[in-house]
Design goal:
The protein is α+β, with helices and mostly antiparallel strands. 47% of the residues lie in helices and 10% in strands.
Length: 589
């Protein structure tokens, strides 16, 4: 026989939780309002986006240094998603330009460091959540122990009280009944002894006192109730109307003096407006106001108010309402012939399938400045293309439609391929307008001395877009006011907005009259699927056209963004309202 008793083995420890499981609910809550990776504008320089990632990186490091794990987790994920999803979609991401290569490699290294940091944050979060669970389990255990202890103490106390009520010492003079059980006592005596266990509110019953009521107690009388209630404090006699106002002013003055000396006034500060408003919601009806109280209020109106309320900003009109208004305005001007839409003979990318050598897909950044250059400097453009030129070839309405068709189908594609190859971009990549302008200036296609200026900002802001309109009207950027009459000077602009570039031409007709044409190389439904030339016969119509054109380019998500966010210059590279305008003009005549 084995005399050694079997020792039970200790229970196996619980398996360690998987990586990330303890903190998963916490991280899911942090990611609840996370937005998907944003789409970048290919016509915005990618180095600006790299600069934005550096700012987010610095925020991430600052949160880590301060031990703010939740904020660091959110910021780190934002950086990682932007660097690994949004940036690689930019057409300039793989550019062989030395500076862009350096920025790309730095960003990739930063993204790896942030990813490792996020993993470390998850580890620390797991430990914190496990520790929180242990603390909570221990708190619940102690709470149950305390509740059980109190229950046992209460039961023991009740047992002792009941035992003291039943097992009392013998009463002298009862003889043989001294040793009998308590059951021999009459029912009234038992009830009396049990009642003695509980404290009385107004009368303490002595231990040996026995008082058996002979009749049930009667209901309390009105006199008994009045005697049991405390008397109210005395009321001061009412003051006269003038004395009442003076007393109120003196009390307010005393209150202000106490506050200025650091003391506590007798009366509290008046409640704020929101508290008063909430109180009125609980009041069924307003009490009647006496003539004396009205006089007091009239006097108080002349006192300085201790509370100042800032005026609320006027509510903004929902952008979808503005969209419908601009659409109606545009349709009205078109019906009245103030705006005319003309169909061109081609559109960008039309020859991509039939003749890839003349593929102008995504070539708007080249097409637009070429249209402007031919408009303001037709002789120079024809010489560059080895074409015969005569003054009769100049149209009274600026560049001809046939010249625009030729730019889209013939002149743009070779330049497009050259610029893309020089920048190391793919076949259909969009090109940043400034890169195209540099190339056109270097090739003497767009003379630098014809450049008027550049402007940009929020295309829905009247002040921002007015800078572009003023340069078109005046032909320079020195004046801030638009001329009442049109100068006899041809001006053109390349307007970059929402991943597309269009041309705007000012056509002087004489006698202070001008037309304003908007040339869009994309196919248009109102132009039977071809590129379009929209002509405005006065300045007001042109400004209405710009409002409609801008509003028509916003998606549903853009409308929500515009309604929820005011314009911020620091976030212009991520705002759908951002535009840029590059203006050229001929020498004033």
């Amino acid at each position: 026989h084995n005399l050694n008793p079997t020792v039970p083995s200790p229970p196996a420890p619980a398996p360690a939780p998987a990586f990330g499981d303890p903190s998963k609910p916490r991280r899911n809550a942090l990611k609840e309002n996370e937005r998907p990776p944003i789409t970048l504008s290919n016509l915005c320089p990618i180095d600006k986006y790299y600069a934005a990632t550096d700012k987010v990186m610095n925020q991430f490091k600052a949160h880590l240094a301060n031990g703010e794990l939740d904020d660091a987790y959110i910021t780190g994920r934002r950086f990682a998603l932007f660097s690994t999803v949004s940036l690689p979609r930019h057409d300039y991401y793989t550019s062989p330009k030395a500076e862009l290569v350096r920025l790309r490699l730095k960003n990739q290294k930063d993204a790896q460091w942030v990813t490792r940091g996020l993993e470390r944050i998850v580890e620390v979060m797991d430990k914190q959540e496990v520790e929180k669970q242990k603390i909570e389990v221990e708190r619940i255990r102690k709470q149950k122990e305390e509740e059980e202890m109190r229950r046992l103490e209460w039961e023991e106390s009740m047992r002792q009280r009941l035992a003291g009520a039943v097992l009392e010492p013998s009463v002298p003079g009862l003889g043989k009944y001294d040793s009998e059980d308590s059951a021999s006592l009459d029912m009234a005596s038992k009830l009396q002894k049990l009642n003695a266990l509980f404290p009385k509110d107004d009368h303490v019953v002595e231990e040996d006192e026995v008082a058996i009521p002979s009749a049930p107690p009667s209901a309390p009388t009105l006199l008994d109730y009045e005697q049991s209630q405390p008397l109210p404090p005395p009321v001061a006699p009412p003051l006269a109307g003038e004395q009442q106002v003076m007393a109120l002013l003196n009390s307010m003055s005393a209150t202000q003096q106490l506050k200025s000396h650091g003391g506590t006034p007798l009366f509290p500060d008046p409640p704020n407006y929101s508290d008063l408003f909430l109180d009125t919601l609980h009041t069924p009806s307003a009490p009647a106001v006496s003539a004396a109280e009205l006089a007091e209020l009239a006097e108080l109106e002349h006192l300085p108010s201790p509370i100042s309320h800032k005026p609320k900003p006027a509510p903004r009109t929902p952008f979808r309402v503005l969209q419908r208004h601009y659409e109606t305005e545009m349709q009205s001007l078109h019906n009245s012939k103030h705006i005319e839409i003309m169909k061109l003979g081609t559109f960008q990318g039309r020859l991509s399938a039939s003749d890839p050598r003349f593929d102008s897909t995504n070539g708007c950044a080249v097409i637009s400045p070429l249209v402007v250059a031919t408009h303001i400097y037709p002789q120079h453009m024809h010489r560059l293309n080895h074409q015969k030129f005569s003054t009769s070839a100049i149209s009274n309405y600026g560049i001809s439609n046939s010249d625009i068709n030729e730019i889209i189908d013939k002149r743009c594609p070779p330049m497009l391929q050259t610029v893309r190859s020089k920048l190391g971009l793919n076949k259909h990549a969009l090109i940043i307008p400034s890169d195209v302008h540099d190339y056109l200036v270097d090739e003497h296609i767009l003379p630098q001395d014809k450049f008027v200026g550049v402007c940009g900002g929020d295309i829905l802001d009247k002040d921002h877009i007015n800078e572009l309109v003023t340069m078109l009207v005046n032909g320079n950027e020195e004046s801030n006011n638009k001329s009442k009459s049109c100068r006899k000077q041809k001006v053109g602009a390349a307007l970059f907005f929402r991943e597309h570039v269009i041309s705007i031409l000012k056509i002087p007709l004489g006698n202070g009259v001008c037309y304003y044409d908007l040339i869009d190389s994309l196919p248009c439904s109102t132009a039977e699927g071809m590129a379009s030339r929209t002509r405005c016969k006065d300045l007001a119509s042109f400004e209405a056209l710009l409002r409609w054109y801008a509003s028509s380019k916003f998606s549903e998500s853009h409308c929500d963004f515009i309604d929820d966010n005011e314009w911020n210059d620091g976030m212009c590279d991520f705002d759908p309202r951002t535009f840029q305008g590059f203006v050229w003009g001929e020498t004033a005549q």
